[in-house]
Predict the structure.
Amino acid sequence: MQALRERLEQGGLAVACYCAAWCDTCKQYRPDFEALSEKWPDAAFVWIDIEENPELLGDEDVENFPTLLIQGPQGNLFFGPLQPYISHLERLLSRAGAASPAVSDGPGPLLGLVQR
């Protein structure tokens, strides 16, 4: 979590994938998620097992996997389930930036949740 903390403190994008170890879809999605993180070195990518780290979800519930969170300095830019195609996440990331409006859905700032 130290690397996540450092990247978030620098004000970059945070990209969290909420999944569960028992989810076959998540198991298939994870290698693509990790490969995408290499294309976005300034973003903090984190894989969160909601059963092992429920505190990183705040008060939110996850009903479908994978559920993705994209946060910027202005707040949550996206929170919700995505089809398990990495191109969907890549498209969202390419449009996320400082001018993107925040949405009200999703957990609080990951940095705060990590520091609890």
About this structure: The mean pLDDT is 87. The chain has one domain: 2-114. The chain has four helices and four strands. Residues 75 and 102 are 5 Å apart (CA to CA).
